[in-house]
Specification:
The chain is of the alpha+beta class. It has one domain. Helix content is 16%, strand content 31%. The chain contains 3 helices and 5 strands. Strands 1-2-3-4-5 form a 5-stranded antiparallel beta sheet. Strand 4 and strand 5 form a beta hairpin. The protein is globular, with a radius of gyration of 13 Å. The relative contact order is 0.25. The model has no long low-confidence stretch (mean pLDDT 85).
């Protein structure tokens, strides 16, 4: 499965999510991102956290390494364009830190 044993992890607030952005961001090819079994992860996520969005396609839209691997952000596409489930991985602990629903439509007034 990679990246530690999954247990229920928190929905990150906007501030918690932004705090993991770091000063440097390097794109990763999806196959180079740390392996996370999304199926298992989604089983431990409170469905309320997904804000009604469907991430069942389990498609990685993009992935980034922040601050030389201190954090990884893996963005999974939803059924709605511009809405992503971001898994935040703590590189120092080799553990999933949390998740955040990034809704660019709402944040920037984009049309889906």
């Amino acid at each position: 499965m990679g990246f530690g044993t999954l247990k229920r992890v928190p929905l990150l607030t906007e501030d918690d999510y932004l705090a993991t952005m770091g000063e440097t961001r390097e794109p990763l090819r999806p196959e180079d991102a740390v392996a996370v079994d999304l199926e298992s992860y989604l089983r431990v996520v409170d469905q309320h956290d997904l804000q009604g969005h469907d991430f069942s396609a389990r498609a990685i839209a993009s992935a980034y390494s922040m601050n030389n691997g201190a954090w990884q952000h893996i963005l999974f596409s939803s059924a709605v364009p511009n809405v992503f489930l971001v898994l935040v991985l703590d590189g120092g602990r080799n553990a999933v830190y949390g998740h955040h629903v990034l809704d660019l439509n709402q944040k920037y007034g984009l049309e889906s």
